[in-house]
Fold this sequence. Notes:
Helix content: 40-55%
Largest sheet: 5 strands, mixed
CATH architecture of the domain at 2-121: 2-Layer Sandwich
Radius of gyration: 16 Å
CATH class of the domain at 2-121: Alpha Beta
Number of helices: 7
Shape: globular
Strand order of the largest sheet: 1-2-5-4-3
Distance between the termini: 42 Å
Order of helices and strands: HEHEHEEEHEEHHH
Amino acid sequence: xxxxxxxxxxxxxTALRNDGRIGGFALVGGLAVSAWSPxxxxxxxxxxxxxxxxxxxxxxxxxxxxxxxxxxxxxxxDGPVPxxxxxxxxxxxxxxxxxxxxxxxxxxxVNIAGRAIPVASPEYLIILKLKAGGPRDLxxxxxxxxxxxxxxxxxxGLATRYRVELPREGVE
Length: 172
């Protein structure tokens, strides 16, 4: 069921990207962590999307037309997620920060269940997780670092640029 919903959303996002309605998207969250480290259970799929404000409703309508129950939600001014679309078991987070846009631009196509999906690179995924700062996010950072796929020089530069503190074992 989750894979079916992911495929539905990917079809919609791909079509909207090809039509120029969105600037791109990338898988983030637990499923993205599992693309780079040992798999972990997750009940949700998190996608990050670049979309202009005037195309938000079009995105929601396209998801609904594809058979998903999509609802636009706006967080508070200082909330961790200012704008997201909840579509069944998917959270489609609207990129509002430069590091989020870069995570999409620098995403890497990874084969997941037979489909090439843009996934945030391990370095950008770590930055996203550290910015989120929840307990599960910090465990995910440890998993990503332990997988030894991280470009530590790139990560250190991103951490400095985006003002996040890496775990002591994060960069040598």
